[in-house]
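Lay summary. Proteins are chains of building blocks that fold into shapes, and those shapes determine what they do. In this project we predict the shape from the chain. Here is one chain we studied, written as its sequence of building blocks.
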Amino acid sequence: MTNILISGASIAGTATAYWLRRHGYAVTVVERAPAIRTGGYKVDLRGAALQVIERMGLLDAVRARATDMRVATYYDASGRPLTTVDADLFGGRTGPDAEIMRGDLNELLYDLTRDDVEYIFDDSITGIAEDGTVTFERSRPRAFDLIVGADGAHSNVRRLTFGDESAFTRDLGHYISICTVPNTLGLDREEAVHATAGRTANVYSTRQDTRAKALFMWSSPPLTYDHRDVAAQKNLLAQAMDGVGWQVPALLDAARDADDFYFDSVAQIHLDRWSKGRVVLVGDAGYCASPASGQGTSLAVVGAYVLAGELATGGGTDGYERELRPFVTANQALGPANIKGMVIGSRAALWFQLTMMRLLPHLPGRNRMIERITGPIARAANAITLKTYDH
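And here is the predicted shape, written in a compact code that computers can read:
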């Protein structure tokens, strides 16, 4: 039985662990955090990813934990509502698309695997030898037949095997920050948005959540900061959003106290190959599409399914590349296009967007205009025909 190590117990890692174990492999997952990560923001599952979720027997559980968002409302600097749109249209969702909190999905995946997969928490990989010997920060060295890097856009496994991430990163010229804040606006399955030229603030509360999430996005040249220095990142956020009205000052104060603060560039990872020797990458580690794509979670879920299936049926990492590459390319293309609608570059463009949102329900050809918004996402989400992998 082939012995496989996965680095990272986020969605890419837990989903890969499930499919590898289902195909009969012995699987170990090492995770830097002391426990499974249950926080995070809301994520979408569309197209092929929903097919994979259904094949895992999780579709009903995912729908039971759906965010159930209703509307998104834009406000001006003084708090006056400008326009309200349907939450699915705001998120680019159509038909059966599902939205769920990232932590809820990861819990479901972890529960599927915890009894059959070895999880090692509070540890990480320090070295990978050509013969498959892996060294760890805390655990003793062990030998594996394959090492899967499922450890995110700043992948430690990718750095150890492929080199510095700067060689593979495409910066989209924006930054994003997300954290949990008190639901002082009394939001109920709704999003409240305030946008100015180059800066957007969004706060939302989902079903069964008494708190809220604050999300900030802004355009910026590359910033120099330590990915592990959260205090410095909070300062950078405050500087970036300084002078923005509405509820932003209060949200920034709340962000100072948040213990789940997330801050990163909006960027993509592009590699010519996702495997090298005994190492293969899945999810953001190999092909991060950026939060702007709205497809990062779907890429992780589909990538896990295809990787495990190709390994089990003889296609190997070459088959994984061949089957998944067009799907990744289609979904990564969404990022640069979508970011322009998430952070508006000028006051004139912002006025035009808000006016179109306000008029959309009353315009002739409304369905065609909605398809222009949702169509590219739906086509990318379905840009792969999933094999049925027998073993």
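What the prediction tells us: Residues 3-168+268-382 form a domain with the FAD/NAD(P)-binding domain fold (CATH 3.50.50.60).
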